[in-house]
Amino acid sequence: MQYFALLIGREQDRSPDDAAAAMAEWERFHATAGSAIKSGDALAPAAAAVAITGGPDAPTVTDGPFAESAEVACGYYVFEAENLDEALALARDVPLAKFGAVELWPTVHAIDQSRALTGNDWLALLLEPPASAHTPGTPEWEAVAAKHADLHAAAGDHIIGGAALHDRSTATTVRVRNGEVLITDGPYVEGAEIATGIYLLSAADRDEAVKLASMIPASTVQLRQLAGISAL
Question: Which family does it belong to (predicted)?
């Protein structure tokens, strides 16, 4: 089973030495987790984020940042794990968990990443009001799934990965403080909208990325450029 992990923390300006030490810690995590990491990268600064609301019929594009706190999404992973306990063990070892949080969601299904990630790729996080976040297998879910099938046909190779997420009641947040693992049920922040899925998009530039994200059938799409540093 695959799990989507959203990494949440404070964006930091580091000295070259501190940045090198941090990168070494991430590389050790990648080496330890190995093939359990199916996808992942850091995100470009939140100030460059884009939100698209209104759906494909009447998209409205708004520039970020959007966070109301100092902590923002700053990276993601997709893990392969036999069960939640195994996924939590991976999340616990993410270096950011020691000073931020890892929000872990089981996926309903996932699109395997089709190639290595670069800094020209984008993460699209799909958000819905709770009333519009339908249960998998229901007629409402299937109707939205049909719209996503149309998106796949239209976007083609621009979609290089993605996942549909289970309900927020299945989400778990992991933090590590002073060596103690703190696990809480639910997403890191309870907001007016909840995550329902992700896409990884390939685009020549920001304008093309926004155009692709505007085609996604979701109430809100938060679009973040990847840093392209994970080599995954």
Answer: Belongs to the YciI family.
